[in-house]
Amino acid sequence: MNLHLKDKLFLVGGATSGFGKAITEQLIAENATVIAVARTLEKLKELQKISATIEIIPGDLSDEKVLDTILHVIGERVLTGAVINSGGPPAMPVLDTKLSDWDEAYKTVVRWKIALTQALLPKMIEQQYGRLLYIESVSVKQPVENLVLSNSMRLAVVGYVKTLSQEIGTSGVTLNILGPGFHATQRMENLFKKNSELKGIPESEIRASVAKQTAMEKIGKPEDFASLALWLLSPHSSYISGQTISVDGGLVKGTMG
Q1: Cα separation of 124 and 122, whole Å?
Q2: Which of 86, 137, 109, 133 lies closest to 248, judged by CA?
Q3: Known PANTHER family for this protein (predicted)?
Q4: What CATH architecture does domain 9-181+221-247 belong to?
Q5: What Å distances lie between residue 244 and 180, 234, 240, CA to CA?
Q6: For the residues 245-252, what does the mean pLDDT come to?
């Protein structure tokens, strides 16, 4: 299938690891141009070696100065789509949290996504086309153990995206959310380590137990996740908006998963 992404411009957050990197690599394979944003300059420079069509912006997406830089780099060009993606808050159970943890989680999970969306949206509406794709977590469908901050704050993003998709439904701009389950990312490895410490059992046992929770009994690959992301970023997804789609190997047990 021709995804019609050649020479199109995309913004990808968290582009040097996990889902962001997999999506960036596949966009480049489709001959798109990518503005890649991530915290570490060295990793961005390494990513840039893949293609001359990768432009890099080092920084934290929750920093307003980084948002200003993004808008400056886009300039007068037509931005076809954006992958709104970044790391999540730290893993912890409810009773270990402090109010300061909740304040910080709001900033790292919710606030910057609203700011970025509101900055990109007017131009997309003006051009009557755009694809906004939010990478959240399967936790918006089914809570994940010891991830109360993510379980809670990511649901706020779902409410925001769903409401906005209804308000601008005739604009030609679509907004969708992908909720990844257990994939082979550094984030997942960190969770294995955290749960190993909390439960006092080896990481290998945690990993096997996690895989067993899915219908497929395996942990996913970021590359497989990215293939659906690319379709949602393409013109083929024009009648899909306001949806939260789980990519989880059958982890979610509910019929609306």
Answers
A1: 5
A2: 137
A3: 3-OXOACYL-(ACYL-CARRIER-PROTEIN) REDUCTASE (PTHR42879), NADPH-DEPENDENT REDUCTASE BACG (PTHR42879:SF6)
A4: 3-Layer(aba) Sandwich (3.40)
A5: 10, 17, 10
A6: 95
Cα–Cα distance, 115 to 131 (Å, whole number): 16
DSSP state of 92: B
- pLDDT attached to residue 94: 96
pLDDT in tens, 73-101: 999 999 999 999 998 898 899 999 999 99
Single-letter code of the amino acid located at 109: V
pTM for the full predicted model: 0.94
Q: What is the secondary structure of 109-158 as a DSSP string?
A: IIIHHHHHHHHHHHHHHHHT-EEEEEE--GGGTSPPTTBHHHHHHHHHHH
- For 28-40, the DSSP string reads HHTT-EEEEEES-
Beta bridge partners, 183, equal 220
Q: Which two tokens stand for residue 220?
A: 């996913």
Each as own residue / partner, the long-range contacts of residues 231-235 (CB below 8 Å, 24 or more positions apart, any chain) are 231/3, 232/131, 232/133, 232/174, 232/176, 232/178, 233/3, 233/5, 233/10, 233/27, 233/80, 233/81, 233/83, 233/131, 233/133, 234/3, 234/4, 234/5, 234/131, 235/3, 235/4
Nearest alpha-carbon partner for 87 in 19, 156, 158, 155: 19
What is the per-residue pLDDT for 113?
98
